[in-house]
Amino acid sequence: MSEANDKDERKSLSLNKQPRKLEMRKGPEGGQVRQSFSHGRSKTVQVEVRKKRVPPRPGTTAGQTGETTAPKPEPAAAPAVQAKPSAPAPAPQKERPRNDQPRHATRGRVVLKQLTAEEKAARVRALHGARKEAAEARVKAEEEARERDFAERREAEERAAAERRQQEEEDRKRNDADARRRSEEEAAKRLAEEHEAKRKADAEAARERQEVSRAAAPAAARAGAPEEREGDSDRGSPRGATKARRGKTADRAVATRRGESRRTGRLTVTDALVSGDGRQRQRSLAAVRRAREKARSGGRGDEAPTKVVRDVVVPETIVVQELANRMAERGVDVVRALMKMGVMVTINQPIDADTAELLVSEFGHRIRRVSDSDVEVGLSGDDDPVESLKPRAPVVTVMGHVDHGKTSLLDALRKTDVVSREAGGITQHIGAYQVELSGGATITFLDTPGHEAFTGMRSRGAKVTDIVILVVAADDAVMPQTIEAIRHAKLAEVPIIVAINKCDLPAANPDKVRQQLLQHEIVVESLGGDVQDVEVSAAKGTGLDKLQEAILLQSEILELKANPDRNAEGVVVEAKLEVGRGSVATVLVQRGTLRIGDVFVAGAEWGRVRALIDDRGNNVESAGPAEPVEVIGLQGAPEAGDLLSVIDSESRARDIAEFRQRQSREKRAAVGQRGTLEQMFSAIKEGQAQLLPLVIKADVQGSAEALVGSAEKIGTDEVKVEILHSAVGGINESDVILARASNGIIIGFNVRANKQAREMAQRDGVDIRYYSIIYNVIDDLKSLLSGMLAPAVRERFLGYAEIREVFNITKTGKVAGCMITEGVVRRGCKVRLLRDDVVIHEGDLSSLRRFKDEVREVKQGAECGMALANYQDIQTGDMIECFELEEVERTL
C-alpha cells in the first residue's frame, strides 16, 4: 500500500512553471588591506573573504539549515477514466504532518534554492556589462561605417580631381598648340611682308639711281625749272615727293659742277658714295696722312706698348713665381734671366732679397725691400718735445767688488736689512729700490752683484743708470770686480761717485784707495780731478748725508727729465717665475707712465699689466719715469735687459713677440750647428771631448744667466759643460726626462723639484743638486769636470846603464852587458837607447839578469845583463836610460 502511494506521489510530482529571473551567484566578498614594510614602504593587497559551508547537523530541518523547501505542487488532473465498478476508489488518507514524514518520503522531490542578494547583484552586474559591451560594439560598428564612407568620399574626390587636372592639361596642350600654330603663321606672314617690302625698296632704290643718272645729264639741267614747278604742284602726292627728291639731287649736281664745294642739307648714303661729277670719292687727307706715317715708320704697323714701371715689394725671401707676378712678367722670362745670372732655380724655389733686387732692376722696375722686422718699426716712438719733459728722479747703480758693503750701504740708506736675507751674505740678484730723502727728493737705487759670475748683471745696471756709485772698501782697496765696474761705467759713459766704505775699521786707508784709483784713470776731487769721493761707514751710518748730497748735485748737473704723458718704455732689470703669480718682471720705467691694463712687449714675450707692485710690496695703479716696479701679467719670463714697450693693440704685440721668438730660435739653431761642426773637427784633431750635460733652473733670469756663463768658462778642450736647458722656475718632470735622456745632472739654484719630479728622478737615477750660493755651484762643477779628465801620465827617471859588451845568444838574441852608472834599473821598466846623446829607440826592457838569474832591480855600481824587447841594434858604448810612467790625477 505504501509503495503504491509512493508511486502515486511520484507521478503527481511536477515543477512549477512560473518564470524565474536568471541571476549569477554572488562571488566571495572582497576587500583591500595595506601592508607596511621597512623604510616607510607600504603596499595595498586585494583579499577575498570566503564563507565556509557548514553541513547540516543530524536532526535539523531544511529550514534550520537555511534551505527552503519548495511548496508541494498540486497533483495534475488525472485523465477522465471510467472507474471500474468492481474496484471502488480507496478512501482518502489523512495527510501527515510535514515534520512527521519519514526521511525516505522526500527522495523523489526537487528542492529549489533561493538566490541571495549578492548573487542577484552579480547577475545584475553581468547583465549591465553585457548591455554595455553590446552598446560599445554598436558604436564601434557605426564609427567603422563612418570611416568607410569618408574614405570612399575622399577617394571619389581625388579621382575627380585627377580627372579634372588631366582635362586641364589636355586643354593647355591644345591651347599651346593653337598658339604655336598662330605664331608660326604670323611669323611667316611677317617674313613675307618684309621680303615684299625689301623687294619694293630695292626696286625704288634702283629707280632712284636711274633718275639721278638722268638728272645728271645737261638736258636735265635745262629742264630743271619746269620740273621744279611741276614738283611743287604735285607736292602733296607720293609722286610729287619723288619728283622733289629728284630736283634736290639735280640741284646738288649743278652746284658741284659750278664749283660750289660746300655741302648743304642731310648727307645720304648715295651722296657719300657718289661725288658731284658721278665718280667715286677719293681718299681723305687724314687717310693720306696715316699712309705717309706708316710708310715713314718702315711698315712695322702699330708700335710696341710702353713698358709700365712698377713698384715691386720684395721681402727677405720670395718665390720666383711670386716675384714674376709682382713684376707682371712671365715666369719663363724670370727663370731665363736668373739662369743668365748664374742662379739655377725653378719657378717654385725661393731666392734671397739681394738676388731679387738684381732681377727687378734687370726688368726695369723699382724695388721696395721689406723685412719681417718691419713689425718693430715705430715701436719706440718719436723723440719727446722739450716742453713736454719734466724732472725725474736719478737712477743710481751701486757697483763694486764682492763683500765691499754695497748692499749694506743701501740698507743704511733705506733703513732696511736686505743683506741678512741674502744667501751667503752676497747679493745674487739685481735689486731695485726707491729712497725718499728728508727734503722730498727721491733716488732710485740699483744694487748689482759683485761676484765675477754676474758680469752681465753689472753691465745691464751700468746701461740703464744715470750715476754709478763705486763702492770700495777702505781696508781692501781696489779689487778685480772694482776694475770691471769702472770699465762698465766708462763704456756706458755715466759719471762715477766713489764711496769709500768701512772707514770705521782700524785697517782703513782711504788714501790708498784714492791712489790705486789713479791707475784706472779715476781722479777724485781731492787730487785735483772731477770725480766726487765720499768716506762712509754703512755699519755706523756715517757719511750718508754727504753721499746723498753728492748724488743730488750730480743729478742737477745732468738735468734729468722725461715725458710722463706717453706710452711707457722701460728696461727689464730682472725676471722670475713665482708660484701663484706666474712670470714676474722687475721693470725700471725710463719714460712714459706704465698703467694697469696696458699691453706691452718685453723682449720675446708680451702681456697685459695685471698688477704693479713697488719695492716695498704695495700695489700701485701706475709707475712713472725712474720708478722700479714688479709687473705681473707676462705670458712668459723675458730675458734680463730686454726693453719693455707699451703697444696700442694686442695683435701687434703678439706679432712682435712671435717675430722675436722666431729670431731667437734661428739664432740658437745656428749656434748649435756651429758647435756641432767645431766638436766634429775637434774630435778629428784632438780626440773626442767629454761633455757634462747640465739642466740649470734658477729663481731669477739673472742668476740663470750667471750660472750658464760660469759653467761655460770652466770647461777645457778635453772636458766641457753642455747646457741642455736653462730657465726660470721650479724643477719639473720634463727637466728630469731631459737629464735622463742625456745622462746629465740638474742644478737647482734657489728652487726645488716638485713631488712628481723627485719621484721620477729617484726612480731613474737622475742627480738633482740644490744650491743657494754660486761659489758652491762653481766648485762642484770643477770637481765633476776634474773627475772626467783623463789622468796625466808623468815620466819618472830611474837611472842610466852603460853598455860595456854585447853578447849574441842563439835563442835570446843580442844581450847587453851593462854597468849601472846612475840610479837604479827595474825589470819591466821603459828604456831609451841613446847613441851619441841621440834617442834611437824607445821600448820595454824584456830581461834583466845578474849572474844568469832574473832579478827585480839592479842598483848603481853593479853589473847586469839587459835585453831589449823586439830590438837588436845595440852597440858597445851606447847608453840605456831607464824610466817608468805613473798616472797623476788632474784638476782644472
UniProtKB/TrEMBL annotation:
Keywords: Cytoplasm, GTP-binding, Initiation factor, Nucleotide-binding, Protein biosynthesis. GTP binds at residues 400-407, 447-451, 501-504. Transmembrane segments: none annotated. Residues 1-12, 93-103, 130-212, 225-237 have a biased composition (Basic and acidic residues). Residues 59-86, 214-224 have a biased composition (Low complexity). It comes from the Bacteria. GO terms for molecular function: GTP binding; GTPase activity; translation initiation factor activity. Gene3D superfamilies: P-loop containing nucleotide triphosphate hydrolases (3.40.50.300), Translation factors (2.40.30.10), Translation initiation factor IF- 2, domain 3 (3.40.50.10050). Residues 391-559 form the Tr-type G domain. The keyword Protein biosynthesis applies. Residues 1-264 are annotated as: Disordered. Residues 33-45 have a biased composition (Polar residues). Pfam families: EF-G_D2 (PF22042), GTP_EFTU (PF00009), GTP_EFTU_D2 (PF03144), IF-2 (PF11987), IF2_assoc (PF08364), IF2_N (PF04760). It is found in: Cytoplasm. One of its GO terms (cellular component) is cytosol. Its main location: cytoplasm. PANTHER family: TR-TYPE G DOMAIN-CONTAINING PROTEIN, TRANSLATION INITIATION FACTOR IF-2-RELATED. One of the essential components for the initiation of protein synthesis. Protects formylmethionyl-tRNA from spontaneous hydrolysis and promotes its binding to the 30S ribosomal subunits. Also involved in the hydrolysis of GTP during the formation of the 70S ribosomal complex. Belongs to the TRAFAC class translation factor GTPase superfamily. Classic translation factor GTPase family. IF-2 subfamily. This is Translation initiation factor IF-2. The lineage of its organism: Bacteria, Pseudomonadati, Pseudomonadota, Alphaproteobacteria, Sneathiellales.
